[in-house]
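Q: What residues go here?
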């Protein structure tokens, strides 16, 4: 994740990692919330379904998107990118 970017967006997959940039800063969890909102919108799920599992204070994070499998998340993100 890249906080304080000039614009928010999904930068694609780099191996098993999805690169994400958000305009929000990392203070008070703003960037984490922005990533959750971005993932929710792209996957077509409510923000409440996106959960930060680990990495709250790190650039590398793990999010759970509802009950979707990793493959389903990849498919939805690919579809959203079209």
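A:
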């Amino acid at each position: 994740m890249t906080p304080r970017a000039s614009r928010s967006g999904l930068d694609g997959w780099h191996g098993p990692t999805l690169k994400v940039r958000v305009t929000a800063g990392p203070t008070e969890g703003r960037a984490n919330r922005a990533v959750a909102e971005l993932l929710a919108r792209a996957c077509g799920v409510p923000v409440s379904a996106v959960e930060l599992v680990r990495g709250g204070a790190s650039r590398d994070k793990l999010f759970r998107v509802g009950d979707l499998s990793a493959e389903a998340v990849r498919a939805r993100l690919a579809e959203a990118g079209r």
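A: Context that may help when evaluating the design: The two ends are 21 Å apart (CA to CA). The longest helix spans residues 30-43.
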